[in-house]
Design goal:
alpha/beta; two-stranded parallel ribbon; 17% strand; globular
């Protein structure tokens, strides 16, 4: 046991220290959106002028739409439309907000399928296949227009069920994530068909695990907004919207379903265990970590070195690289969050952050 602890401490120390060459490369991070965008056809570097975007490798040209880069593999593809008006969102669920609050100014977050999310944080890049007032890049999850290893965190909410090839999109997530980066993706499970433009694959926890099998699993959970009550409500709402009753018996049945609304169904979710809830949940969430590298740990070498020397921290945070450990806000606890509250006690941590250029989702530096 003592030998195993020494081995772990040795590995953490190597990750924390690195060498001079690695230290130099670690600071070479992008500070603007234009630095990390890539050709969606060949992955080549892009050149931006006021009218068009050009690939240096394959010569492809891409347009802007009202100032937003359109980086689709096939810019001439038929436009995708929603079956209804997009809801405007401000901010995120509490667990994701806690994650974002723990990140440094230079960290980069990609929100796939961000749609109408109104968020002012310059570190968050909002990507969708359609233009909204809040989208920063128009692109396709099947061919993300970003350079390899350029993103620290990827979020995707209510997107994966709408992808024609979710396995390919999961591979793209792995490609563009930095080693030690994290993915937080959810998917419908027991939920009606709906358009954007269609639902192709609903998914269980086991399905998400298979899709993201190349990641170290942090958690596969049912969030509070994915509990069985939401599945029951969504199915019955769709049932009533599509059912065309004709007989007195059918009308009585419809009224019976309406009567269910008088019960506090959300409160009943607490009567399900986590495992039972996952069997009939409206959706499920997967949190995964791309294996970290010694060259440029997302949490920074000063913090990792401090962690390697603290038995208390190693006991409290078994995996120091985890950025979001759960979708349940009351259980959120990560080393980086701890560091945010105790940065003065970590030798070199404040200096490490100050040495990194803050990221801005603007196309170019102003």
């Amino acid at each position: 046991m003592a030998s195993a602890r020494k081995t772990l401490a040795s590995i953490l120390n190597r990750l924390a220290t690195g060498d001079a060459t690695r230290h130099k490369s670690a600071g070479n991070r992008a500070s603007t959106l234009g630095e990390i965008l890539a050709c969606p056809k060949c992955g080549g570097m892009l050149q931006f002028d006021r009218r068009r975007i050009g690939c240096e490798s394959c010569g492809s040209r891409f347009p802007y739409l009202h100032g937003t880069p359109v980086l689709l593999p096939d810019p001439n593809a038929r436009p995708i439309t929603h079956e209804g008006k997009l809801q405007r969102w401000e901010g995120y669920h509490a667990c994701v907000t806690s994650l974002i609050d723990s990140l440094s100014p230079h960290h980069i977050v990609l929100d796939i399928g961000a749609g109408n999310r109104d968020i002012s944080d310059e570190r968050i890049i909002r990507l969708d296949v359609i233009k909204t007032p809040f989208v920063d890049v128009i692109g396709d999850a099947h061919r993300l227009p970003f350079r390899d290893g350029s993103i620290d965190v990827i979020l995707a909410s209510a997107v994966w069920e709408h992808l024609r090839n979710p396995f390919l999109a999961a591979q793209e997530v792995s490609r563009v994530l930095r080693p030690g980066g994290q993915v937080c993706v959810d998917c419908n499970f027991v939920f009606p068909f709906h358009g954007y433009p269609a639902v192709y694959f609903n998914c269980s926890k086991e399905g998400l695990r298979e899709l993201f099998s190349g990641f170290d699993e942090i958690a596969a959970e049912v969030a509070s907004w994915q509990k069985p009550s939401y599945a029951v409500e969504a199915l019955l709402t769709e049932y009533l919207a599509r059912f065309r009753y004709e007989t007195p018996q059918e009308l009585a049945f419809v009224n019976l379903i309406h009567d269910l609304g008088k019960y506090p169904i959300r409160e009943f979710d607490r009567r399900f265990s986590e495992d039972d809830s996952a069997r009939i949940a409206a959706g499920v969430t997967f949190l995964g970590l791309k294996p970290p590298s010694a060259a440029d740990p997302v949490i920074g070498r000063p913090l990792l070195k401090h962690y390697s020397k603290s038995r208390e921290l190693r006991a409290q945070f078994p995996n120091p690289h985890v950025l979001l450990n759960t979708v349940h806000p009351e259980r959120f606890s990560t080393l980086l969050q701890w560091a945010r509250k105790n940065s003065a006690a970590i030798i070199g941590f404040v200096e490490w952050e100050k040495g990194m250029k803050p990221f801005s989702r603007r196309l170019r530096a102003e």
